[in-house]
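Section 5.1 Outputs to date
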Amino acid sequence: MGSINAQRFAHKVSEKVRSNELVNMGEIARNVGYAKSTSLHPERITKTKTYKKLAKPLLDRIDDEISEVQAAMSKKDKNNEDYRVLAYSLDMLVKNKQLLSGGITSLNVFVLPSEVMSKNGIQSDNVDSIKSIESKSIPS
């Protein structure tokens, strides 16, 4: 069937998700025998055929639960406590799905303070000026 390490990785990730534990894919990769260089880029594992095949049943169940929660949310009053619980559940399910499928679970956006922007001639709506500053700050 494919890499034994990928199989062990998929089972460990699935185990952690099912028990609602924190999932650190890099740590799991190291624990199942992957090199440090691979553990720093766990998407290399989650993109393998072996991992995808083993993660599919759990992803399918999560999709079913997401549908159920969305259906329940559509019938609830948004000011109701039950709605907040459902929203939290939906958030966790979507993040778990993204985690298992190798997607992002959060997006970090860095905003330059206006003082730095004006000092460097950066306009918030001018992407070219931001790229220009980035190229200057990266040593050759």
